[in-house]
Specification:
581 residues, 5-stranded antiparallel β-sheet, 5-stranded mixed β-sheet, 20 helices, 18% strand
């Protein structure tokens, strides 16, 4: 009797699924969106936006709104993709009658599903345990979670253990001693954990406290939606945001700011909330301080993802591996790392990592197809991708080769672990150097930065010197500040103390703007009269220079000098050869 009842229920279930499959076939995506078969992508997109806003479950609580919203998304999935749309037009007519094969049952992440006819089926979730499987030729499949393990079906041609159905429905153990006994509630909880939720990326509610602690200048790229409860397009943007955040999971995070509740935050970052919600990316690109960039493109996943990728950090310098060697005199004196891969462009995960370690490591990357290059052979690189590091003491190491990457998030996690370990070793090196007995060299480094005069100009900034860093001051206060900054930089790099007399690499000096206006006019027609304090990087051999005239702090000075040494700053030719009198 029990077996007979089980068979009746299973057959009824299959008939129900089949009926849903046939019913789903009658849905024409063109009719669902209310567009003509010749509609262009712009018209399809506009129709989708309008309908998705109208039937979004968060806004429309009416009966059937959720099902309608699922239909709209499924239709848009087909018509927004040129290949899928072409397949639909080839395999189905306006009445939705594509070729239909026998179909089959299967199991995916705890969901048992039935696939109908038509090529290249795909699916999306419509909520509450059901999944609507959108396919070509206007086919759909429906699935419902029966719980249990994906591998528990054994040789069952239906893709699931029939006993699990009874376990879920009636809360008892299945006959034959099934391993999936227990209540229906516990089975559903298990399915939710291992199924849909695993691919869901949360859009965080960003308050002022969260912004200050987790967003502002933390090295992480954020996709931020600023809105009010009355804003248009909020729910549509959230949906698109979630798709992008999922595809770039690990490289960026997503959040939303309610400007009705967080007026101070919205005012602080300069975002006014009008009738429409506004979408920004908080990123770093090439600067160490984060900033907001507004998105003004189409509300679709592809366009927004492209925008986000363009605004990921760019702290890594692309180099030619055949010509590359780690720079010896970088400022500040930080560990350097080089990523080797076969990618034509800097990998997304390396750009994301660059933002996280932007003020702690110096980044390079290179495209490699030949492992026989001298640097790679010397360090024992046998597989790609590979990560090479140069410690602050000048030693070069292969941190890891043959790095396995399952997805973006795991790849970033793996690289972060490697870099954290490398940074930790360098901090220990720095500590040991600081605690070691001072040498005669380090004592000389404590000398004051010299004042540039006609008598010492050739020695300090002559053609024997690669780069001469000059602190130009207009007041005694500015002189004291510049001397302290340049003295500190020279100690960090160990260049001036070691090579000052030989004139090799780099030298530092101070210059009184009030007494040397003629010398400064060789660089600037006005002689920098409007600046009380600035840095002048002069390359005597090339007759070129660069100027930093913003607020001169130790951090900004280090960055400027480092950029000059690494060739990241565009130099300008002098107006004439500078001469001190």
């Amino acid at each position: 009797m029990g077996t007979h009842l089980r068979c009746i229920l299973v057959v009824s279930l299959f008939i129900t699924l089949f009926a849903l499959q046939v019913a789903a076939k009658t849905l024409d995506p063109y009719k669902v969106l209310g567009v003509d078969k010749n509609a262009n992508q712009r018209d399809i997109q506009k129709a989708f936006h309008k309908l998705s806003l109208k039937y979004h479950p968060d806004k429309n609580k009416g009966k059937g709104a959720q099902e309608k919203f699922a239909e709209i998304n499924n239709a848009y999935e087909v018509l927004s993709d040129e290949e899928k749309r072409k397949n639909y037009d080839l395999y189905g007519d306006e009445k939705g009658n594509p070729g239909f094969d026998g179909g089959n049952f299967g199991n995916r992440e705890g969901y048992t599903y039935f696939t109908g006819g038509g090529p290249k089926s795909s699916y999306f979730t419509s909520g509450d345990g059901w999944q609507t499987m959108g396919g070509q030729g206007n086919t759909k499949t429906f699935s419902f979670s029966f719980g249990g393990n994906r591998g528990a079906s054994g040789g069952n041609p239906f893709g699931f253990d029939v006993g699990d159905v009874f376990s879920n429905f009636f809360g008892g153990g299945s006959m034959g001693g099934s391993q999936h006994g227990g209540s229906a509630g516990s089975a559903r909880a298990s399915t939710g954990t291992s199924g849909q939720d695993s691919s869901t990326v949360r859009i965080h509610d960003v308050t002022t406290q969260v912004f200050n602690k987790e967003v502002a200048n933390q090295g992480i790229t954020w996709l931020l939606l600023f809105y009010t409860p009355q804003s248009k397009d909020q729910f549509l943007l959230e949906s698109v945001m979630q798709d992008v955040a999922r595809s770039l999971d690990g490289a960026l995070r997503a959040g939303k700011v309610n400007c009705d509740k967080e007026k101070a935050l919205c005012k602080k970052v300069g975002v006014s909330s009008g009738k429409s919600a506004r979408l920004f990316i908080y990123s770093y690109t090439t600067t160490e301080k984060g900033s907001l960039h507004e998105y003004s493109g189409e509300y679709d996943t592809k366009s927004l993802k492209t925008f986000c990728q363009e605004h990921l950090p760019r702290f890594s310098k692309r180099v030619d591996i055949g010509q590359f060697s780690f720079p010896l005199n970088v400022l500040p004196n930080l560990p350097q790392v080089l990523l080797l891969s076969t990618k034509k462009d800097t990998p997304v995960m390396w750009r994301a990592i660059g933002g996280m370690f932007r003020d702690r490591l110096i980044f390079y990357d290179a495209e490699v197809h030949d492992l026989s290059l001298p640097l790679l052979k010397r360090l024992g690189v046998k597989n790609l991708p590979a990560l090479i590091g140069r410690s602050i003491n000048g030693e070069e190491h292969l941190l890891k080769d043959g790095i396995l990457v399952k997805d973006l998030r795991s790849g970033i996690k793996e690289l972060k672990t490697l870099l954290d370990s490398f940074e930790k070793k360098n901090k220990k090196l720095a500590s040991n150097q600081a605690n070691s007995k001072p040498s005669q060299t380090s004592k000389r480094e404590e000398n004051k930065v010299p004042l540039l005069t006609a008598s010492n100009f050739e020695e300090i900034c002559g053609e024997k010197t690669s780069v001469c860093i000059i602190g130009v001051f207009g007041s005694n206060k500015a002189k004291v500040q510049l001397e302290a900054i340049l003295s500190e930089i020279s100690k960090k790099t160990l260049i001036r103390g070691q090579n000052y007399n030989s004139g090799n690499a780099i030298s530092y000096a101070l210059l009184d703007r009030n007494k040397q206006s003629a010398f400064l006019s060789s660089f600037d027609k006005s002689g920098f009269k409007s600046s009380d304090k600035l840095l002048l990087a002069y390359k005597p051999r090339r007759g070129r220079f660069a100027v930093y005239s913003d607020e001169v702090t130790l951090e900004e000075a280090e960055r400027f000098v480092g950029s000059v040494l690494n060739g990241d700053v565009q130099l300008t030719a002098t107006r004439q050869k500078p001469v001190l009198r």
